Amino acid sequence: MLASRDIVLPEGDPSDPGEAETVCGLGNRKNDVVNAVLKRDGVTPYPGSVALVEALDRRGVKMAVVSSSKNAPAVLAAAGIADHFPVVVDGAVAAADGLPGKPAPDTFVAAAERVGVEIGRAVVLEDAVSGVAAGRAGGFGLVVGVDRGAGAEALRAAGADLVVSDLDEILP
């Protein structure tokens, strides 16, 4: 985005404060704004997603969240659903553990290992083409694409076994 606007900033360091005139500083400033909005406005989760998570939780299904965002824990808390996910493998965890992001399967594999589920018996629910590709590349038992705009065909082409438009379609 910066290059397309002829903006040149030094890379900086991930520890740069939000005020720093660096790429990392700009990213940290964006995170500060996102977290302020989350705190002020909260998040309204998709009702079908909440219904599925609650149904799975009642059945004792082990669940984790995988996200490239370092804000995933704050988003889950703002949505009121953090307690359902004992494991969150987000951008911060991936960076700390040296895990490549999607479409590499490593973050999904790490999440399955941390909740104690064999990969072949684990399910990936994903709305991004790169995430579906990661689930397929990891050999997960079922990869469900959630079409929130990526397109059903694109999700199938990336390796989704099933594509739904809302997670309430797979409620038990």
From TrEMBL:
| Alphabetized Gene3D superfamilies for the sequence | HAD superfamily/HAD-like
Q: Which InterPro entries does the protein's record reference? A: HAD-like_sf, HAD-like_SPP, HAD-SF_hydro_IA, HAD_sf
Query: Which SUPFAM superfamilies does the annotation name?
Result: HAD-like
Q: Where is this region: Disordered?
A: 1-20
Give the top-rank taxon of the lineage listed in the UniProt record for this protein.
Bacteria
Write down the Pfam families for this protein, in alphabetical order.
Hydrolase
- Identification of the protein by name: Haloacid dehalogenase superfamily, subfamily IA, variant 3 with third motif having DD or ED
